[in-house]
Amino acid sequence: MSTPANSAPMALKPAHVRRVRGFWIPATLIGVSALIYAAAALYTEQYAQLSFGGVMGLLQRMVALGLVAIGQNFVILAGSIDLSVANLISVCAVIASYLMQGDPNAMVYGVIATLALAALVGVINGLLVTRLSVSPLIATLGVGMVLQGILSVAFTKLRGAVPKSFQTIAYGNIAQIPFAVLLLAVALSIAGFVLTRTVSGARLYTVGGNANSARLAGIRTERVIVGAHVVASLMAGIGGLYLASWLGAGTPWVGRDGGYGLDSIAVVVIGGTLLAGGRGGVAGTIAGVFVFATLDAVFNMLQIDAFLSQVLRGAIVILAVGAYTFRSKGHVA
Fold first, then answer.
1. Given 72, 206, 292, 310, which residue has the most CB atoms within 10 angstroms?
2. Which GO terms describe its cellular component (predicted)?
3. Element of type H or E holding 177
4. Are 102 and 163 in contact (CB under 8 A)?
5. Do 115 and 237 touch, CB atoms closer than 8 A?
């Protein structure tokens, strides 16, 4: 009689352990980063950085990279990668500005057209990877170079500006919480729900874990991978719209100079997602974004050369991959 009662907790233990581990990584990253941020603010006597407004400013630093990284998380979970996002951000920011031309009546049209273009780029990336069997690294790098070339040639004919009302996205707030932070929170919540509570999310993990097994199980792996690339491109498009709102206009270098391509991959890896695919989640990814945001803020407070920040970012990525590979005992990121 006692055997079933005693065996029940043992049956539940693996799932419980997975949940604890899934929580441990982002909680540790956020906790340590927050402590370093607070220590830097106290050391430099910049106490305003610890106020509500200062914290909201820190969170707003996360928005652009956070949006792009959420999309990057999808393609990496599927066992792919997207190096075109940085240039796609620039394209979307420029196109949105050109279509709106400062006219509030053109905002809806500009947003829809921009996101449609982003989705098309995602479809192209996905088809190159699945139908033509081009390496994701090469396919998306090539698409990114094409986008950058188009911008370089056509930018002089695509100048424009977003209307003041559109800049509310970047500068508006509700109850002193920036709209941009709320946008990131909504995107994060939707992504987390899709990955953990839907069939599509389960299929994404399955395809990333073992595409051949997923195919034998009846999953249309090509659709899953193309869908992941569309999500990544749409999130890059939303990031481009946000940056156009922040700057008031799109520029050909806003995505590239922002480092959103490699940084989005780095924060996904720091958050515990395997580059091989099949394991990870957006909670760890957003924690990785928080690490980079606090790192930039701390370097600004300490007035340290920004180039050293890049060195430290690289070291963090290497240490994170090494730690996860060692802990996984057999998984290679």
1. 72
2. plasma membrane
3. strand 177-178
4. yes
5. yes
Distance CA 289, CA 71 (A): 13
95, 155 contact by CB (below 8 A): no
Q: Is the pLDDT of residue 9 over 50?
A: no
**Per-residue pLDDT tens over the stretch 268-290:** 999 989 888 999 999 999 999 99
Longest dimension (CA), the chain: 80
pTM, rounded to two decimals? 0.90
**The one-letter amino acid at 148:** Q
- The end-to-end CA distance of the chain, in Å, is 45
Say how many CA atoms lie within 13 Å of 38 toward its Cβ. Answer: 8
Q: Which two tokens stand for residue 2?
A: 């006692």
Q: Which of 69, 108, 84 is nearest to 187 (CA)?
A: 69
Structure-block tokens of residue 196: 């953990």
CA 96, 97, 99, 100 dihedral sign is: positive
**Amino acid letter, residue 289:** V
Question: What's 27-48 look like in SS3?
Answer: HHHHHHHHHHHHHHHHHCCCHH
Rounded to 5 degrees, φ, ψ at 304 are -100, 145
- Residue 109 is which amino acid? Y
pLDDT exceeds cutoff 70 at 10: no
- What pLDDT, on the 0 to 100 scale, is given for residue 125? 98
Q: In b/e form, how buried is each residue of 24-58, taking b as 16+ CB within 10 angstroms?
A: ebbeebbeebeeebeebbeeeeeeebeeeebeebb
Contact 281, 22 (CB under 8 A): yes
For residues 32 and 290, give the distance between their C-alpha atoms in angstroms, rounded to a whole number.
10
Alpha carbon distance 316, 64 (integer Å) = 20
Q: Which helix (H) or strand (E) holds 238?
A: helix 221-247
**238 and 115 in contact (C-beta within 8 Å)?**
yes
> Which domains occur in the chain, in start order?
24-328 (1.10.3470)
